[in-house]
Amino acid sequence: MDRPEGFAIKSASPNINNKKIISPHTKNESKGFQFKVNKPPSYGWLEGILEKEHVDFLWKQIKNHKNKDHKPRLIGNVSESYALEDEGNYFQNEVVRPLARAYYQISGNHHPMRAYHESLEKYSLDLSTFWFNNQLKGEFNPFHDHGGVYSFVVWLKIPYDHEEQKKLPQFKGTKTDDIKAGCFEFEYFDLFGRPSQFTYGLSSEFENTIVFFPSMFRHCAYPFYDIDETRVSVSGNLWLNTQNVID
Ligand SMILES: [Fe+2]
Predict the structure, then answer these.
(1) What is the CATH number of the domain that holds 188?
(2) Is residue 139 part of a domain?
(3) How many angstroms separate the alpha carbon of residue 196 from the centre of ligand 1?
(4) Assign residue 109 a region: left if phi > 0, alpha if psi is -120 to 50, beta otherwise?
């Protein structure tokens, strides 16, 4: 696995590496003929755990935010969203550009947005939108996608445990897998065009985790209940900067 420098990363399903998805022919033990499984290539997303210095930087920027309201630019039904400054381009250079490079490499040396592929080789990817969300109980972020080429979410503070949320009285009788309280979810289409979901049942164990994905990848954050603390997440978009040609 290619790793960006400095912090752990793994790729999440669907299978991101289209070089490894075709298995060799396998002998069928009972009938004696050979078969293999073919799975078409698909994209995925990256998941990593930030280092302490990355996390400290994000909390510092949140503490020093300039009250620049970001809510009019977002779909989130949440209490507060404010723009962040990426001071010294720190988060861009230390975290998200390395992740973009890793995504490119493990996707067979191309970006998922073929229309931009050639241009992406020529222009820089800049973290030009950067913000944080304060989400209180009962608030949510409906399914949406982002602008830009790549986007990310960092879960900085998750004050609840999805497993505990499942036990709330209003969910009595609901199938366990259908309870989405406190979850973050990606949506994609499977081989048959059926909408499918990959669900993160969040808890404090996911604090300081980053998920990094193509901006057009739809996702949502479900509400949590009964907990009075604030859920804090940081997001951003990497845009193609056509003013900055890479030598
Ligand atoms: Fe989002």
Answers:
(1) 2.60.120
(2) yes
(3) 18
(4) left
